Amino acid sequence: xxxxxxxxxxxxxxxxxxxxxxxxxxxxxxxxxxxxxxxxxxxxxxxxxxxxxxxxxxxxxxxxxxxxxxxxxxxxxxxxxxxxxxxxxxxxxxxxxxxxxxxxxxxxxxxxxxxxxxxxxxxxxxxxxxxxxxxxxxxxxxxxxxxxxxxxxxxxxxxxxxxxxxx
Length: 167
Known about the structure:
Layout: H1 2-18, H2 25-37, H3 41-53, H4 60-72, H5 76-88, H6 95-107, H7 111-123, H8 130-142, H9 146-159
């Protein structure tokens, strides 16, 4: 079913164009989200590029879906490349953006990158949540950085983010 949904979404986008309806940010965002759920990171990035070249400004949700698509496709470098791009067009990353980027680093076994993103997140006053910490702790686990993982667990408790079973 996953495969069908992203293909159907792409078909609807093509149909919009065929009847001279210009897709807006919401239409593109919905199709990029469908690609993310269908684990089609190349399609998601292609649509994001198409969107920009058509003069349609992506919003934070669109970028989040594209970063998540890269994360699911284990494309951590592609995911991280979207962060500066977002800022360059005036779209500010939120907690979901950073969590998806950290998860991409986790899947790519890039613990140091994950910790750097977490530090960046804090530096721009975006507060990590339980999901963010879980992703960073998983990245530390894969990078065999036990002390950093324990430090993140302590930090979680200090800011009032209650650990869950996964943590």
